[in-house]
Amino acid sequence: MTVQVVTGTGTEIGKTVVTAALAAAALAAGRSVAVLKPAQTGLRPGERGDADEVARLAGPVTAAELARFPDPLAPATAARRAGAAPVGPEEVAEAAAKLATEHDLVLVEGAGGLLVRFDERGSTLAEAARLLAAPLLVVVPAALGTLNATALTAEAARARGLELTGTVIGGWPEQPGLAERCNTEDLTEAAGAPLLGALPWGAGSLSPEAFRAAAPKWLAPELYGRWDAARFRETWAAG
Questions:
Q1: What is the pLDDT of residues 118-127, one digit of tens each?
Q2: Which residues are recorded as binding Mg(2+) (predicted)?
Q3: CA dist 3 to 29, 41, 59, 106, 157, Å?
């Protein structure tokens, strides 16, 4: 794994925290890591962005951001409203490829879901992943409704010739209901790819030290961790 693109089924579902957990687990395994945020929206200059948050939680990673737009909107819309040039997939691929020459692992964190528009041509994160020949890690919620969104994301990815590494649940509740417990089984079928981890709800609020110590327990060996999918399902299986 050299470049891993991290996307999700929507916004505010834990992509940044999952990216941080993957970075922390890779660092603990002795890998050098870079995190690239192609387009940061909803923040002004000087405010901490997603790449900075990954570095705060995970530790010594190279954090890079290509563009920043103040409105909390899709990158293409935010760029247009700011009167600024958008970020295209070629720019994303070039920056990630350069980082990959200097790091063992490059994590490219998208904005919103896979098909959120990056520019006026309708380019998306999927085009950048295709240019990089990089697989997608899809961050998903645990609750009711996640199966449809997960299946749609997976179908859109495969229609574009992209490979799915798997899915990770961005926030697992302390007291999961019936839907969440059933989804531990059904997410794999919906994605057509393995469930590779589950972060506890509120993981991003942990201290950096606690976060780094716990991160490998949340992710499967494919993501540098030691999380056991079979044991997780057994623990939370619906009765």
A1: 999 999 999 9
A2: 16, 50, 109
A3: 16, 22, 19, 5, 16
